[in-house]
What we know:
By secondary structure, this protein is mostly helical. The protein has 2 domains: 3-89, RNA polymerase sigma factor, region 2, helix turn helix motif (Rna Polymerase Sigma Factor, Chain: A, Orthogonal Bundle); 91-190, Winged helix-like DNA-binding domain superfamily/Winged helix DNA-binding domain (Arc Repressor Mutant, subunit A). The protein is built from 9 helices and no strands. The radius of gyration is 21 Å and the shape is elongated.
Amino acid sequence: MDPTARDREILDACLKGEAGGWDRFVRQYTRLVYSVAIRYRLPAEDADDVHQAVFLAAVSHLKELREVSRVAAWLITTTHRECWRIGRKRQRNLSVTEDFADLDEPSQSTAETAERLQAMREEMSFLSEKCRELIHALYSDGAGPSYRNIAARLGITVGSIGPSRMRCLSQLTEALRARGFEAPSDEKHEK
Length: 191
């Protein structure tokens, strides 16, 4: 079958809501989406988050993409935007986690370190149990366990880890900022 005809058939199946149409669509374009994410050199978990976000966006935009020739271009553009967005979020969240993970900086006194650790413990206690478990699973093991292992251990889907991580870290960041602890400036992490 001609590739364009196959793509048209897949797109039509999705638009008609046929069983298996969406699965075929995702299989058809997964490599394309991941190829863009790979160029951004995102960690595997972030590339998975990009993949999920792009295809979630595609669900609501398929009706606008009736021309097969526009689907790939739309997916590429959307993937670029999502990679940039996730990269920026990751950079902000890394700033916060590095700020509180690297508590042994020579410039910090023991009292400052203890104060920061106590603030972190206190604010963590106000997060939901799911957020506490997720943050602990993601950041307490220096080796960085895989999303699959974390998902199995916590009984959640792999695809929910990235968005949940962002939401939980944002809550923790805001709580710590409200207590007067600022994340390091962006210049520190861009060097």
